Amino acid sequence: MFDTRELGRRPGALKRVSRSVVAPKGLGIEVIGVREGATIELDLRLESVMEGVLVTGTARAPLMGECVRCLEPLERELEVDFQEMYSYPDADDRSREADTGDDAEEEDMLFLEADLFDLEPVLRDAVVLALPLQPVCREDCPGLCADCGARLADDPDHHHESADIRWAALQGLAETMRDGEKDNAPRERGDDSQEK
Questions:
Q1: What are phi and psi of 192, to 5 degrees?
Q2: Of the given ranges (45-49, 102-106, 138-142), which has the lowest mean pLDDT?
Q3: CB burial class (10 A; 0-12, 13-18, 19+) of residue 155?
Q4: Is the N or the C terminus of the chain less surrounded, counting Cβ atoms within 10 Å?
Q5: Where is the stretch described as Disordered (predicted)?
Q6: How is 7-68 classified by DSSP, letter by letter?
Q7: What φ, ψ does residue 175 adopt, rounded to 5°?
Q8: Longest C-alpha distance within the chain, in Å?
Q9: pTM of the model
Q10: How confident is the model at residue 33 (pLDDT cuts 50, 70, 90)?
């Protein structure tokens, strides 16, 4: 929670805040995110406006995850900007009098509670939206071998002899026939050629 009492309600009043906070649980997506308990550095600008307090800020946090191609662990530094309006509690009454008719917009409004505001939902949205959906350890990561799972970056010449899957059934049939021919092969073939 951040305190806005020093700012007052005079429009145009400005306050800058720098703070380190502990990352909450679940700040990320399945393959990458900010580890719970990691330090997030915040630089905030609080500005008093007619309706409330406009919060503009930058967050810097360490990311941990894994490459989606080769599954190797990776670490990155994330820097994300955000801006959010926290309305005064009585601003809700004024907006009802004005009756804008947009109920969805009213539901999305954030309010100051006893001159305090909770930055976590705004920070969570900003961080999660800034995360790469397909994080890779490097742009040209070749990934893993589809046949054996070997990491291709460790062995660039890695390959397997493979036949076209469409011919696999015929290849199996050909091998069966070859095995059958070996079992039934005529042993006197050399004798036939001598007789001629």
A1: -60, -40
A2: 102-106
A3: exposed
A4: C
A5: 172-196
A6: G-S-TT-EEEEEEEEEPPTTEE-SSEEEPTT-EEEEEEEEEE-SSEEEEEEEEEEEEEEE-T
A7: -65, -40
A8: 118
A9: 0.67
A10: very high
